[in-house]
Structures are given as structure tokens and as C-alpha cells.
Protein: Kinase-like domain-containing protein
Organism: Glomus cerebriforme
Amino acid sequence: MILDYASGGSFNDWMNNNYKKCDWNEKLLLLADICEGLEGIHQKQMVHRDFHTGNILFKFQDERDIFISDMGLCGEVDNIDKAKIYGIMPYIAPEVLKGNPYTDAADIYSFGMIMYFVATGKQPFANRAHDYYLAMDIFKGIRPEINVPEAPECYIDLMKRCWSSNQDNRPKIAEIRELINVFENSYSQGYEMLKQKHYKIEKQFKAAEEYRRMHFSSIENIVESSSHPQAIYTSRLINPLIKDSSKYEYVEEPSNYFNISKDIDFDKLANAFEELNNQNYQDEDNHLED
């Protein structure tokens, strides 16, 4: 019944219709909204278990009003039947493909793939069959390819943390939300007071936006023509495709392997933005009193 209110369709549909005007500011706002939805699930000690772009719905076609759907597989952390693996292979964390318990870290892996889709307009592993051999490559640490300047370096670093083979490297959704907000505030034209404090982030996003505008036509053609006939982006039972996968080891990066843009102090930036927001609220209150 929830679909009755999603006239904008899925994230896939929305992106197909709005890709040309979806600049980096819009991309970050979309991710911030998705973060908010997933954080609400995790705060209830629940996990989604089938988190992908097809289960992110838009209430209206021309507005950024989204919600996360298909909660039928949603369950409590560590209280989930792991016998059946259901979903879209590129969005399923390697530990889940091997039959390990589904945790909130697996949702974060899926979020990393959503970040790839947002950045490129392409589904992860769209050029490959979603079969046993793809699962084996995922175990080996193979991930969708993306490079600067197609996306900002700080964005790519966060995305790679999310899809790390090592669950300990994946950030919590609250940390992701804070970083996405830092990115958005850094790039937004409404935060002129802090430009000098975060110019490196701003510079990275401006370069990515310039690249997007210059290469839009070629990117659009790639998105339309690169899908493999056996790349399946509807949820299905994965178990028959990964028989005996538990026998194979997957590559794990050591803990703390990733460092998001070492020369950027995100804690300092987050505090600065919080101070600015508090000042704005105080100014509004003073104005109302006057």
C-alpha cells in the first residue's frame, strides 16, 4: 500500500528522469535524506537487510521527498535468520554472502553502493553478470571503479570505508550523516563565513561538478548502454548463485586502513558548523524578540 503514495517511483526511476539536473549539491542533499531514514532504522536496533536504490522511493517526481520502503525483511540485529540470503548481489556485504549474520554494518556496505550510484548515475557492477564469479570477486575485494575527478576525493574515501570488506572499517550511520552534512555545508553557497576553513572540500566538489557538466553527454550514454543482460537489479534469493561460498576467504583490510582526506580536520569543521547554526538560531530569536 505504501506504493500508492510514491508517485515519483524508485530512486532508479527518479535518477533516470532527473539525472541531467542532479548536480553535486542535489546529490548530497539526497544522501543526507537517505542517511536520516537509515539512521531511524538503526536507532531502533533494526537492520533493513535489503537496502538498495529500488527500495528508496520518492513521493513526488519533481521533489526530493523520499522514504525507505520494503521493510518486510527488516529485523532486529543479531536476531535474523541467516539461512536465506535475499537481495541484489552488488548491494550485499561479503560477510553476508558467506552466510555470516546480517548486522547494521551490512546496511552500511549497501549505503556505500548507493553512494556510487549517486555519484555516477550507474548501478554497481552493471557491466557484469550477477553470478557466482562476481561473488568470488567481491570476496577478493573487487569493487566498482570510480576515480577523481568523477567524484571528490573525500567522497570516494567515505564511500570506500562504507564498502570495506572489514566490518570494523565501516562507519556508523550517524558518522556518515555528519560527514555528508560537512560536505554539503562546505559546498553550499550559504556558508560563506566558513569558506576559508573548508576550502579543500569545496575545491574537490567544484572540480567534480565541473567534470560532471563537461562530460554529461558521455556519462549519460554509458549509463544507458552498459548494462549486462544478467545484471539483475530486483531482489531475489541469492543462495543458489553462491553455493559453497563459505569455503572461500574474502580479503579484509586491516582496521583503520582508510583515512578520509588526512589533511582535512572533520571534527573541527563539524564543530564550526554547529557553532554557526547555533549563532543563526540565536540571531533568529533576537530578531523575533525585537
About this structure: The mean pLDDT is 82. The radius of gyration is 19 Å. The chain is about 45% helix and 5% strand. The chain has one domain: 9-249.
